[in-house]
Write a structure and sequence with these properties.
This protein is mostly helical. The chain is built from two helices and no strands. The longest helix has about 50 residues.
Length: about 90
C-alpha cells in the first residue's frame, strides 16, 4: 500500500470516527459494531500489506539466488574459485 493510499485510508477512518462520535445519543451496540468493522478493515489492510511484503521478500530471495548462480557460472567460466569454497592462499 502506498503512502497516498495509507493517508487516504487514515482520512477515511478519521472521517468515519468523527461522524460517528458527533452523535450525542450513540447507541453502545452501534458503536460496538462500528469498532468491530473498523478493526476488520484494519486487519484486512494489514494482511494485504503483509502479503505484499512477503511476496516481495520471496521475489528478492529468488533474484539473489539467480545472481549467486550467475556469479558461480562466471567464476567457473573464468577458471576462478567457486563461491562457497576457500582458496588455498588467503590474503590478509
Amino acid at each position: 500500500m502506498s503512502n497516498s493510499n495509507a493517508s487516504s485510508s487514515s482520512s477515511t477512518i478519521a472521517s468515519s470516527i468523527s461522524a460517528e462520535s458527533t452523535g450525542a445519543n450513540a447507541d453502545p451496540q452501534e458503536l460496538t459494531i462500528f469498532v468491530q468493522q473498523l478493526l476488520q478493515q484494519m486487519q484486512s489492510r494489514f494482511q494485504t500489506m503483509s502479503d505484499t511484503i512477503i511476496s516481495k521478500i520471496d521475489e528478492m530471495g529468488k533474484r539473489i539466488d539467480d545472481l549467486e548462480q550467475s556469479l558461480q557460472d562466471v567464476m567457473q567460466q573464468s577458471g576462478g574459485v567457486a563461491i562457497g569454497t576457500q582458496s588455498s592462499t588467503t590474503t590478509q
